[in-house]
Design brief:
Layout lengths: L1 E8 L3 H12 L4 E5 L6 H4 L3 E2 L2 E2 L4 E2 L3 H19 L4 E3 L2 E4 L3 H10 L9 E6 L11 E4 L3 E3 L1 H12 L3 E3 L7 E4 L2 E4 L2 E8 L19 E9 L7 E4 L1 E7 L2 E5 L13 H12 L7 E10 L8 E4 L6 E5 L5 H18 L10 H4 L2
Parallel strand pairs: 1-2, 1-14, 2-11, 7-16, 14-21
Antiparallel strand pairs: 3-10, 4-5, 6-10, 7-9, 8-9, 12-13, 13-14, 15-18, 15-19, 16-17, 17-18, 20-21
Helix pairs in contact: 1-7, 3-7
Protein name: FAD-dependent oxidoreductase
Organism: Persicobacter psychrovividus
Pfam families: DAO
Length: 346
């Protein structure tokens, strides 16, 4: 039997971040994962967006999440010897003057100040923004595919490429056993598949499928644009745009309807010629109340969950991964906002 401190199921953004945090504390971690190119972590844009929503408001817990995530991801870049973090201003065109006035009023709130670069920013040529827009600070994107690939190499022999078989999991008060491995505990972090587990199927997951497009253009823009859909410059004239939201169809199928929705929203502000080169879909592991599921199983003390990060997984994972690490290593309780006990009690 090979002995570990923790076994983590899944190597999307949740499992990658948490395993890195535990290893940094000296824990021996085994990651079990079956690579899926249509997983939400690999399809997602990886947007780091502090101001969101139709009313352009501060993203949930942005003042805590963003100061933590930037140095954390830079540490991961250094450790994995790969470049995936891209600090870029996000430009949000105003839909009407009232939006500008409303955000101008909010900017007096000290919580907004670290995230606003310019309330009267002019868009780059080729972007339709007749009344201007806001450009943001502490924004950008994380290119998750090179991160996930490099981190798998970083794990070395502590990575197991296979579909997790829950029937092979055995647990007791001393710890858990899985095939030829033992550990103090096991953490479910494999995205939408967590909902199929006998230990977690009582949680109110609400997965949502999203489609994204990639296109080429002759123009190299210097900002991310976000109005109905995001447009993310990936370099060499390549852009990613999306996304759609579908709770009914949870397959990884791409659709003409999804492509039409994205291109119609894109046309509202993008005025440059472009050529579509790729169309993808993935299912986000979202939850009923749009808050993550973090914590210890209420009946089985060696089984944990880190999931339900939804469309903001890149922003949420470092902060709440650290919270779960503190529970595992120091028995520090998880915040009620994200603790799974909020549903067990009800």
């Amino acid at each position: 039997m090979q002995s570990y401190d923790y076994i983590i199921i899944g190597q999307g953004i949740a499992g990658t971040v948490l395993s890195f945090q535990l290893k940094a504390e000296g824990c021996r971690v085994l990651v079990i994962n079956k690579t899926d190119q249509n997983s939400s972590s690999r399809v997602a844009g990886g947007l780091l967006n502090p101001l969101t929503g139709r009313k352009i408001v501060l993203s949930w817990k942005a003042e805590e999440l963003f100061p933590y995530l930037w140095p954390f991801y830079r540490e991961m870049e250094s450790a994995t010897k790969t470049h995936f973090l891209h600090p870029i201003s996000i430009y949000r065109p105003y839909a009407e003057i009232a939006d500008q006035n409303d955000l101008s009023g909010k900017s007096a709130d000290h919580r907004y100040e670290p995230f606003i670069e310019n309330l009267n920013a002019v868009a780059e040529e080729g972007i339709h923004a007749p009344i201007g827009g806001v450009s943001m600070l502490q924004s950008g994107w994380a290119d998750l595919n090179p991160l996930l690939d490099a981190y798998r190499t970083y794990l070395g022999e502590d990575y197991l490429e296979e579909v997790f078989d829950e029937q092979e999991l055995h647990h007791s008060s001393e710890g858990v056993k899985y095939k030829g491995y033992t550990a103090k505990g096991i953490i479910y972090a494999q995205g939408k598949s967590v909902a199929e587990s006998q230990y977690w199927n009582w949680l109110p997951f609400r997965p949502v499928r999203g489609e994204v497009l990639m296109f080429k253009s002759d123009r190299e823009l210097e900002k991310i644009y976000n109005k109905g859909v995001f447009v993310l410059p990936m370099g060499n004239g390549l852009y990613k745009t999306g996304s759609t939201y579908d709770h009914a169809d949870l397959s990884n199928a791409i659709t003409e309807k999804g492509k039409r929705i994205i291109t119609e929203k894109l046309a509202a502000f993008w005025q440059l010629p472009f050529e579509l080169v790729k169309h993808q879909a993935g299912v986000r592991p979202a939850t009923k109340d749009r808050r993550p599921f973090v914590g210890q199983h209420p009946e089985y003390s060696n089984i944990y969950i880190f999931g339900g990060l939804g469309s903001k997984g890149v922003s949420l994972a470092p902060y709440f991964g650290a919270a779960l690490k503190s529970l595992l290593l120091h028995q520090k309780p998880i915040s009620e906002e994200v603790s799974i006990l909020r549903y067990f009690k009800s």
